[in-house]
Design a protein that fits this description.
5-stranded antiparallel β-sheet; Rossmann fold; alpha+beta
Length: about 1000
Amino acid sequence: MKNQHLKPRIATALSLLSILVLSNQCSLKPNKHRVVTPDSLEGKADQDQETVLVINPSEQLVADAKKAGLSVKGSVVVEISGAVRAIRTLETEDADLQAILNQPIGVMKFSNEGNPITSANETFDQQTMYLAKQEFGVGEWIARNPQNDGRGVVVGVMDDGIAPDLEGLKTTSTGERKIIALGKNPSALDTVLVAYDEEVNPEFFYKEMPVGEADKLFVTKIKELVTFNTENFLDLNRNGTRDSFLTGVVVSGTSAKICIDTNVNDKVDAGECFGTFAATGEFAYWDSKKIRAAWAEFNVETLTLSISAGEYADLNGDVDYDSHGEGVATVMAGHGIGGLQGQAFDGLAPGARIVSYDLSETSTNGNESLYNAATFLRGYEWLGQQGAEVVNTSYSFFFYSAETQSFFNKAISAIIAKYKFVMSFSAGNNGPGLGSFNRGLIYPDSTLAAGAFVSKNLDEYVHGVTGLPEEGRVVYYSSRGPSPDGGRAPTVISPLASLTHMTVGEGYQAFNGTSSASPALAGLATVLISSIKQAGLAVDHFAVTHAIRASGQRLPNVPYIDQGYGLPNISRAFDIYKKIVGNEQFAYVSGTVNGGTGIFVKLSQLQGDFEAAVSLAGKTSPSQTPSTMARLLIPTTVETNVQWLNTPRNGWVSVGASKMHVSFATSELLAAMDQSASGELTAEIIVRATESKDILTVVPVTVVDDRALTGPKVLNVKLGAEEGIRFHFGIAPNTEAIEVIADSMNFASAVGFQIYDASAVRGTRSALVAGRKYLIQRPTKGWNQLAFVRNGGTEIEARARVTITPVQLSLLNKVVSPEAPKAALRNGSTELNGILVALPLRTTLVDSTRISKLDAVESWSMPIPELGTIWVKPVLNSYGNVSYSTSNCNLWIHAADGSIIASVPTDGTAFEITEQHRADGAGMTMLCNAFEWGAKPSAAIQVEWNVNVKFFAAREDAKPWTSLASQAPVRIPAGNSMLDIPGTLGDGVELFYRVGIDGGELALGTVTPAVK
């Protein structure tokens, strides 16, 4: 499958500020609290439109909102929308009310690069298609219990939509209609119709529509508009021209028939009329080749037609750019994939029916195109209302504030509590960096987060990879723990699915990434629920989630932070479920340390010996009897896998908390760290039930060596197939870059590398080529990690010797003599050999340094520059005890009414200002937001923003700025040196140290001629 990671959604200035529920204020009535604080709405005009999200508001608050003229939508998480003037009036007596202003979310769909596999007529061995079933034990389970294949269960797909005509998504294993409901976000094609008037609507198309005597006809035109943030129009019928389609809806009682003149010939042709999807399952096609399917719903009361744009592909139908949802749905519950029959061509739960919510409908409106908290929460509620019992989300979320993360966690918990479904998330493809599961705090304990596992057979048969160990492997890109609270990791690992069949023209594809692991796990949950129903047992979604977790079989010699509780098994999960609902054991046991779920220590923080208290508590599910569970007392055995960690041998667990004290033997830990080639030590506190030997909980312990690099460090890299490893080190304050060079490689370029900053956020990525130098610019100060990965592979181990060197290079002079221009450089590291590059000066539009608080939004406004090139690079530095901080910045060109014309990258890449931008735009605005990802954010923590915006005017000869470079090879010894500036000084130049043609560069600063 194509790598479709990011679908950017541009934040608006009115969407970033979070809302805190405050205590009494003097202007309020007694016992009343503001739902929205004045500070949160500071600077907003009364007429501005906003949306507040509230979890389970009181009936009085809902009534007050409606009385104030505000729109109210939703059930569990309620959206209250309207003018700021009215929102300011909202009050509540509930001091614990959970409310927040709707905020944008950056999202990522997690499928790694996949290579198309040509469809053929040969008979596939059963081992190829359903290895996820084999690894879970589901294939054998369904063979013994054919009725347990997901039948009787409805599954929900939260993704970018699914095509209703896809082979594999038409019927269930029992012959029922597979997709029973399709929902979506608002889009460019949603429209309100008007009653047909022959004089106003004289087109022949309407006269041909099938209208009975008692029927009513409503009409509109659907236009192919220019879509948000692109220069392209929405070519629905794929004919290359921008059309307007005559559209009519015939209403007969409560049913509706939709007709669209897709071929634009003013006639009703075959296939242009179809019923609403939910009621009939009917759909049509926008194009004559029947590649782009269209489905619709019609609200008879509001006369609103909601119609889909269909799954997006190129004009030939050869490449499907919007097929992520199809892959997810077929893995989870497909039947007869590719039109072929047999268990080998079924997903995990072929008997299940599907409801799907489409997040990616194309819009012309920037606000509609945003991924935000409301987008997902609204979709989850819709799926719950359609009867979904298992919901999959193969996206990961990047929130703009810590408070939104906390709110999202609570909101998901509230929705799950009402609709009682099992939810599976993809852990993410940000591995193998330690801490790359850095969004773990948004997932409640009542959900599953799937890491990615690949078996030896699956990798060979499907992905063409050999050399995996017999037990398989956690794939290198699967995100790892610990999360910011020190412990959370993917709940379990789940096998990559093997093959899926995509839309017209694509045949089969190897769908992988945690995007495929999560629906495989959701499919396992579906089979378990189906089995529970077939056994005549009541379904407890909470118990299902934790039975799956407890059934995990851990891979040997793989840390908990990589695999969680391991690979689940359907037979074990079914037995554990029966014990949970039979009050024989807790749903799960929590283990916490100082409010977190694990222990994470940097070596620089370790002062003497270390001691901590671990609290253990049994957690119950809704179906368990409280009085019975209160009497349950489980003796425990405590284990650890390292010599430097001391724990008690025995203990106990009940619904009340018990404690055990653990400690580090620091001298032994340091000795172990000296023996560690990677600078990382992992350990686990494993709590087992003494009698059954079952693992009740695991508290992970992680120690990293963050001592600063003072000189070159040699890393011996050895990688098997699909493997990733990481090395830890510290970055001193005066280090401006890291130079990376590899030699002694047995493969020319089989290894890639990527750096993770002090917040475990993945940065620079590149293939590693022998002899080539790479420069990683401006690494964050403190703990960093360099990871090496191997995508695919064979039995031959990939090896390389990699040297990393801190680059401490600075420019000492800003002014030079025009007669003999020289750069005075200070090299605080070892000798450097590279290229000195001089480029003509750029204009600085913004050079700003601000001190701000976490969760605060900073904004910069600027005029649109002349025609030319603009570069934007905001840098965040945090101060204080920050366990995990990050930033998000968005810059856009906007019209006078505030609508977004174009988004400008904020990662330092070039963006061209065009005549159209200047004609349509009124200005440029950038918003930056920094926040703490940790479990306990501190309001006292400050951050420093350094924002630099540079511009280079378009030249008459149209030469780009980079083509004007003058350069010369240089040897820069340690200490101070004077080097000739290459080329012509002119009015001044910007200097760069470059390590090669494509190895990266370090900006040194600007020099200008001295004034005589």
